[in-house]
Write a structure and sequence with these properties.
The protein has 467 residues and is an alpha/beta fold. Helix content is 45%, strand content 12%. It has helices spanning 12-26, 32-49, 53-63, 66-76, 87-104, 122-135, 151-159, 172-178, 190-193, 233-242, 339-349, 353-366, 371-384, 387-400, 405-417, 421-437, 454-463, and strands at residues 110-116, 141-148, 161-163, 179-182, 185-188, 196-200, 216-221, 244-252, 264-269, 272-277. Keywords: Methyltransferase, S-adenosyl-L-methionine, TPR repeat, Transferase.
C-alpha cells in the first residue's frame, strides 16, 4: 500500500525543473497548463512505481533518462486535429495550389508533400486524398510524409483507424469513397494509406534537409509554431523553407503568425496566405517574437474604406460575445472566461480598446486556440480601423470554431470595408449554410449582435455599394 506521503502532489519547484529539462530537449514553451500536465503524469507514473512524485521526478531529472522523459513529451504534444481541418486551407489547396504544383511537376511525374507536426495522421491523409485526386489523371505518383515528435500519435496514424469525430468535416461522398466502417470506427482505404509514410522527427531537432535532402513540393505546418519558444520559431521557419523544392509551397496555420519566410514570397490564395520558394534560404538569427500589432498602423479614429450607411457597428462589449459553443448560456460569459479574456472584456466595455488588445496579446501567447479571444481581437481591430488585421483575426476564430456566426459576420463586414466583395460573398454563404444546418430561417439572430438577424445582414450586404 502506498504511503500517504507518496500520494502528495509534487513540489512545484521540482515540476518546474522537469519542465526546464523538457524545454531544453524540445524547445516547447512551458505554459502553466504544461506544468499541470507534467504534474499529472508524474503522479500517475510515480504511483505505478510505488514512489512519491517528488522522488520520481528527481530520478528523471538527475538521470536524464529519455525512456522516462518520453511520456512527458508525449502528453505535452497531443494536438487537436481532424480530417480536412481548416476549410479555407483545403479549399485553397484543391482550387489553386495543388493543380499548380501538378502542372509544375509534370516532367518529374511525382509530387511530394510533408505534414509537419502531423499528430495522429488526419492532416497527412487529407493531403494524400487531395493530391491523389489531382494527380491520378496525370499519371503522377504521390508521396506524402508525416512527421511528429509524439511516438504514440504516430502509432495511431499508422493504424489509419479513426472515430466519427475525426471525420466530422469530411464530405459524405469522400467518406464513402475512402473509408469502410468496423463497429464504431472508420478504416482508411489502402489506396490512400500506401501514399503516406510516417517518421518520428521534431522540428527543433535539426534541419529538415538533413533528413529529407530531396525536399518537398508542398509543406503544411499548421498550428505548430505557437507551441515553440519564440526564439526557436525563426529557425524552424527557415528549416521548413529550406526543405521546399524550387517553386514549392509552404502553408502555416491561422494562429502561427509566421511573418516573412526566407527565400519565399507570400501569395494570397482566397483567404489563405502561402509562401512560395523562389530563392536560397539562410537561417536568420534567433530573436524574440515582437508584438502582434507592431506592423499595424492604427488611425486615431475608424477610417472606413467605403460607405456602409444603415449597417450598424459590430459589437465590442463583453456582454455581447457568444460562448465557445454557440448554445444559450445560463450565465454571463465572463463568469467562465480566462482571467486575461475577462480583463480584455472589461477594457473593451470601458472603451479602452488598445488596453484590451494588449490583454489579448498576452492571452493569445498562452491560449492561442481560444476562439473568443480571436473574435474580440477582430471586433476591436474593426473598431480601430485595422481591417486587414481584423480579417486575419476573424479567420483564426472560424478556423478554431467554424460555427461562430459573429466571426463570419465580422469577416464579411471587414471585407466590405476593404472593398473585397469576394470575401463578403464567401462569409455570407457560410452564414447562410450555418443557418440551414441549424434548421433556422433567415430571421435567426446572429448571437452576440443585438438586433441583427442573418437575413437583415445579408440584405444590407446586397444593398451596399462599394464606392
Amino acid at each position: 500500500m502506498a504511503r500517504a506521503e507518496d500520494r502528495r502532489a509534487p513540489d512545484p519547484g521540482v515540476v518546474r525543473r522537469l519542465g526546464d529539462l523538457v524545454r531544453a530537449r524540445t524547445r516547447l514553451q512551458m505554459r502553466p497548463r504544461n506544468l499541470e500536465i507534467i504534474e499529472r503524469v508524474a503522479e500517475r507514473r510515480a504511483a505505478e512505481r510505488g514512489a512519491s512524485a517528488d522522488a520520481y521526478l528527481e530520478h528523471v531529472i538527475l538521470s536524464h533518462d529519455m525512456a522516462e522523459l518520453e511520456p512527458f513529451i508525449a502528453e505535452l504534444t497531443v494536438g487537436e486535429t481532424h480530417f480536412f481541418r481548416g476549410p479555407p486551407q483545403f479549399e485553397a489547396l484543391r482550387s489553386e495550389i495543388v493543380p499548380s504544383l501538378v502542372h509544375k511537376r509534370r516532367k518529374e511525374r511525382v509530387i511530394t508533400a510533408l505534414s509537419a507536426g502531423c499528430s495522429t495522421g488526419e492532416e497527412a491523409y487529407s493531403l494524400a486524398i487531395v493530391l491523389r485526386e489531382a494527380a491520378m489523371n496525370e499519371g503522377m505518383r504521390v508521396e506524402v510524409t508525416g512527421i511528429d515528435l509524439n511516438p504514440r500519435s504516430l502509432q495511431k496514424a499508422e493504424s489509419a483507424r479513426y472515430s466519427a469525430w475525426s471525420l466530422r468535416d469530411m464530405p459524405e461522398v469522400v467518406r464513402r469513397q475512402y473509408f469502410r466502417t468496423e463497429g464504431d470506427f472508420w478504416h482508411l482505404s489502402e489506396d490512400v494509406r500506401r501514399l503516406v509514410r510516417f517518421r518520428r522527427f521534431g522540428l527543433t531537432e535539426g534541419p529538415l534537409v538533413s533528413v529529407f535532402p530531396r525536399g518537398f513540393d508542398l509543406i503544411l505546418c499548421q498550428n505548430v509554431l505557437y507551441y515553440l519558444e519564440p526564439d526557436a520559431r525563426p529557425e524552424v521557419i527557415a528549416s521548413l523553407a529550406a526543405a521546399l523544392a524550387p517553386g514549392g509551397v509552404l502553408m502555416f496555420g491561422p494562429v502561427d503568425h509566421a511573418g516573412d519566410v526566407p527565400g519565399c514570397r507570400a501569395v494570397h490564395v482566397g483567404e489563405v496566405v502561402v509562401h512560395e520558394r523562389f530563392g536560397p534560404v539562410s537561417v536568420p538569427p534567433s530573436s524574440p517574437r515582437g508584438r502582434r500589432y507592431a506592423l499595424l498602423s492604427i488611425p486615431p479614429a475608424p477610417l472606413p474604406a467605403l460607405r456602409m450607411e444603415g449597417v450598424p457597428a459590430l459589437p465590442v462589449a463583453a456582454a455581447t460575445l457568444p460562448p465557445v459553443v454557440p448554445e444559450p448560456a445560463s450565465a454571463p460569459l465572463t463568469s467562465s472566461a480566462p482571467p486575461s479574456l475577462a480583463s480584455a472584456f472589461a477594457h473593451a466595455d470601458a472603451g479602452n480598446l488598445e488596453a484590451a488588445l494588449a490583454e489579448l496579446e498576452a492571452l493569445l501567447e498562452e491560449e492561442p486556440e481560444e476562439p473568443r479571444a480571436h473574435l474580440l481581437e477582430g471586433l476591436l481591430l474593426v473598431e480601430l480601423g485595422g481591417f486587414e488585421a481584423a480579417l486575419d483575426a476573424f479567420r483564426r476564430c472560424v478556423y478554431l470554431d467554424p460555427s461562430m456566426m459573429l466571426a463570419h459576420a465580422g469577416a464579411a463586414v471587414a471585407g466590405l470595408r476593404l472593398g473585397r466583395p469576394d470575401l463578403v460573398e464567401r462569409h455570407a454563404a457560410r452564414l447562410r449554410a450555418l443557418t440551414v444546418a441549424r434548421g433556422k430561417g433567415v430571421d435567426a439572430p446572429i448571437e452576440g449582435w443585438d438586433g441583427m438577424t442573418v437575413g437583415r445582414l445579408l440584405r444590407l450586404f446586397r444593398d451596399t455599394e462599394i464606392q
